[in-house]
Structure formats: structure tokens, C-alpha cells
């Protein structure tokens, strides 16, 4: 076995597609100690700078003191604790939905929701750039997948109009695309779902906590939350915590409690983790200036990188892709940035389509103006070498 696997790894390496783990020996934040060296972090999804916030840490500690650490079993056995219920109620309030259901991770949410809602006789319409966890949920569901070109509403409508046999139709999309940082056309998707009697599911992983008047996400920002059947999101990115949710009708949540295998057959989140998420929601509500800060910093950095002549698509989110094409080039640039103390990871196939390797720069509310300037200078230096 080892010979065969080692040979496969060598193939990855020859194509500049080998990945390995870096180790961080500090709290998450704008500055971290990564593989023994202090670097400015420009690749985290901790958009609001909350991952190490003392209020979140204290909330977790307090509940750990009261309820211990482990949850003991699946939620359907005896693992459903008051902290889970309290968090679900708060998520539903923020999302203005009847109910919400916690999952242990966003990955498990997508896999569980999609495979519960659709099956063999159904068709899923999925944006070409949707997150891998959506794709895995689709595969697990055994429904037929029809992938539409990224954000192409004309193509999607043609596919919907041509579909006559499906028992159920589900349209699924990221709201903010994780590797491109662009935004789904939610109002048009909602209209198409209605016209063609399809269900609509939106993954707000990179929008929750960042967009909308109350931070509920892109659906709130665009005023279409009420037209989305399943709003999914994660608590591990802007919320700085861990776990994920599905928000929607009470009957949806009741159904998922019965049918989502990633809820039924897994241990409940530790109650302290739910408490940490609840503290994060409190901060999201109370400190809208964090969202304003990160979006302003992102706008600045995006413009600054563009003005260096880099291929940076326009956008409005804290995800700033610097398109480089080949995996080799992306890897080289990432290494050179690291030499200047800037941590940005190279995103290569299969995470993104072949020929679209990139550096995925992300900004957080914790970055200072000086940090942003240092990032720009490091890029300037890399370009001058190329
Ligand atoms: C990160 C991400 C997920 C997975 O969320 P986790 O909580 O990290 O498992 C799902 N969907 C999208 C679009 C993501 O970016």
C-alpha cells in the first residue's frame, strides 16, 4: 500500500499540487506563529477577528464549569442540552425564520441537509463553483446533478425549463463563493425557484455575520431571505466559533431532525461550543462596526492589489483572489510572500478549476492599516521578482 500511495504523492508533487499541514502555535488572529515563525495572517476566515475574543472564550469556560465538556451522545439520545436549544432559538431570531437546527460543521450540514431532502428521483441544480461539501451532499443524495455555469441565470433557466420528470427540484448555491469572493444572484435565483417550483438552498458560510443590517447574511442584505427555503451557514468563520446551522420553517427542522444522518448519527456539539457561538452572536449584534471595518479594509486592499497590476476580480467581500493561473506560480508567490512575513495560501486544483490557481487573500476586522500596507508591499516585492 505505502509504495502505491507514495507514488501518487510524487505525482501531486510534480504537478505542484502536493499539500502539507502547517502548525500554528498561537491563538488565531492578525498575527500568528506558524511553523515557528511570526507572520501576518492573510488567509483566515475569522473575518470579524473573533476566534480568540475573550468574551467567547469566557462564555465557553463558564458553560464548561457548569456542564462539563462532552455531550455524551447524539442529540436524539440524551445529548441535546439547553445550550444547543438556546443557540438554535437565537439563530432563528437572527435569521427571522421559524426554526433553526445545529450541525457539528458546515460540511456535515451540507451533506446532511441535501441527502435528506432529495433522492434518486430528484434533480439538483448546482452552481459550478459551489463548495465541495455541497458536491459531496449531492453525491450522497443519489439525485441527478445538473451543474450550471457559474452565476449563469440564463443557462439555469434553460435547465429548469427542460426538466420535466423530476419528483423534486432543488437549486443550491453558495451566497458568497468561497474561492472567488463573488456573490450569487439571489433575487434571480429566488424568482427562478418560484417560477419552476424548485426548492432553494443557500450556503451563507462566507456571508453570515458579515452582510445584512443585522449580520444575518447575503439573503438579508439582498432582501430575499423570505424566499429561501433552506438557509445554511457556518459558525466557524465570521462567528469565530465552530458548528453550523440550517434555518427555515419548523417543518423543515422537524424533518431534518428525523432524516439528516449527520444529525442523527453523530454526537452533539459540546455545550461549551454552543455557548461560544451564542457569545459570538451577541457580539455580531452589538458591534456592527466590525463588519463595516472588514468590508472597508477589503475594499482598500482589493484596490491596492489591483493597482499593482495584479489580476484581481472586482468584488465586495473580504475574499480577494489574486489570479495566477498555474499551480506552480501560485505556490512560488505564496512562498515569496512568506519570506516577507505574509501568510497567504496558494489555492490550487482540485479546490479550483485547472488553470485558475490563485492566492486567496482574506482580510479580517483585526487587521490594522499598517498590516494592509505590509501586505501590499510584500506583493509589490513579489511582482518585481517575477
Ligand atoms: C467552509 C465552508 C463550508 C464548511 O463549513 P465548516 O463549518 O468549516 O465545515 C461549507 N460551505 C462553504 C461555502 C464553505 O466555505
Keywords:
single chain, 386 residues, alpha/beta, Aspartate Aminotransferase, domain 1, Aspartate Aminotransferase, domain 2, 2 domains, seven-stranded mixed beta sheet, three-stranded mixed beta sheet, 45% helix, 16% strand, globular, binds pyridoxal-5'-phosphate
Describe this structure in words.
With 386 residues, the chain is of the alpha/beta class. It has helices at 2-14, 54-67, 75-79, 82-95, 106-117, 132-141, 153-162, 186-195, 218-221, 250-259, 261-264, 271-286, 288-307, 327-339, 369-385; strands spanning 31-34, 37-41, 99-103, 123-127, 144-148, 169-174, 199-203, 230-234, 244-248, 319-325, 342-343, 345-347, 357-362. The chain folds into two domains: 20-49 and 288-385, Alpha-Beta Complex (Aspartate Aminotransferase, domain 1), CATH 3.90.1150; 54-286, Aspartate Aminotransferase, domain 2. It has 15 helices and 13 strands. The strands form three sheets. Strands 3-9-8-7-6-4-5 form a seven-stranded mixed beta sheet, with helices on both faces. Helix 6 links the parallel strand 4 and strand 5 (144-148). Helix 13 runs parallel beside helix 15 (369-385). The longest helix has 20 residues, at 288-307. It starts with a helix and ends with a helix. The structure holds pyridoxal-5'-phosphate. Pyridoxal-5'-phosphate binds next to helix 5.
Amino acid at each position: 500500500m505505502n509504495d502505491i500511495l507514495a507514488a501518487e504523492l510524487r505525482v501531486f508533487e510534480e504537478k505542484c499540487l502536493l499539500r502539507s499541514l502547517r502548525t500554528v502555535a498561537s491563538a488565531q488572529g492578525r498575527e500568528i506563529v506558524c511553523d515557528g515563525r511570526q507572520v501576518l495572517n492573510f488567509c483566515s476566515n475569522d473575518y470579524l477577528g473573533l476566534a480568540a475574543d475573550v468574551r467567547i472564550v469566557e462564555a465557553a469556560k463558564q458553560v464548561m464549569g457548569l456542564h462539563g465538556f462532552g455531550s455524551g451522545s447524539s442529540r436524539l439520545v440524551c445529548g441535546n442540552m439547553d445550550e444547543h436549544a438556546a443557540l438554535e432559538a437565537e439563530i432563528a431570531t437572527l435569521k427571522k425564520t421559524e426554526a433553526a437546527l445545529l450541525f457539528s460543521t458546515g460540511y456535515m450540514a451540507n451533506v446532511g441537509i441535501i441527502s435528506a431532502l432529495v433522492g434518486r428521483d430528484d434533480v439538483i441544480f448546482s452552481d459550478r463553483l459551489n463548495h465541495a461539501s455541497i458536491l459531496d451532499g449531492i453525491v450522497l443524495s443519489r439525485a441527478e446533478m445538473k451543474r450550471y455555469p457559474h452565476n449563469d441565470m440564463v443557462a439555469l433557466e434553460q435547465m429548469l425549463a427542460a426538466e420535466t420528470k423530476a419528483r423534486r427540484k432543488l437549486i443550491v448555491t453558495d451566497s458568497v463563493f468561497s474561492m472567488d469572493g463573488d456573490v450569487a444572484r439571489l433575487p434571480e435565483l429566488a424568482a427562478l425557484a418560484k417560477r419552476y417550483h424548485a426548492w432553494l438552498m443557500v450556503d451563507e458560510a462566507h456571508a453570515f455575520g458579515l452582510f445584512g443590517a443585522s449580520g444575518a447574511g447575503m439573503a438579508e442584505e439582498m432582501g430575499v431571505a423570505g424566499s429561501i427555503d433552506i438557509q445554511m451557514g457556518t459558525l466557524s468563520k465570521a462567528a469565530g466559533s465552530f458548528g453550523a446551522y440550517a434555518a427555515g420553517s419548523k417543518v423543515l427542522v422537524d424533518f431534518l431532525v428525523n432524516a439528516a444522518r449527520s444529525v442523527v448519527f453523530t454526537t452533539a456539539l459540546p455545550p461549551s461550543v454552543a455557548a461560544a457561538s451564542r457569545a459570538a452572536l451577541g457580539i455580531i449584534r452589538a458591534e456592527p462596526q466590525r463588519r463595516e471595518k472588514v468590508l472597508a479594509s477589503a475594499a482598500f486592499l482589493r484596490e491596492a492589489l489591483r493597482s499593482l497590476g495584479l489580476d484581481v476580480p472586482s468584488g465586495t467581500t473580504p475574499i480577494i483572489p489574486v489570479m495566477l493561473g498555474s499551480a506552480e506560480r501560485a505556490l512560488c508567490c505564496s512562498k515569496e510572500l512568506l519570506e516577507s512575513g505574509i501568510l497567504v495560501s496558494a489555492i490550487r486544483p482540485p479546490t479550483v478549476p485547472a488553470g485558475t490557481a490563485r492566492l486567496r487573500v482574506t482580510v479580517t476586522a483585526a487587521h490594522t492599516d499598517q498590516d494592509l500596507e505590509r501586505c501590499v508591499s510584500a506583493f509589490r516585492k513579489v511582482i518585481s521578482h517575477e
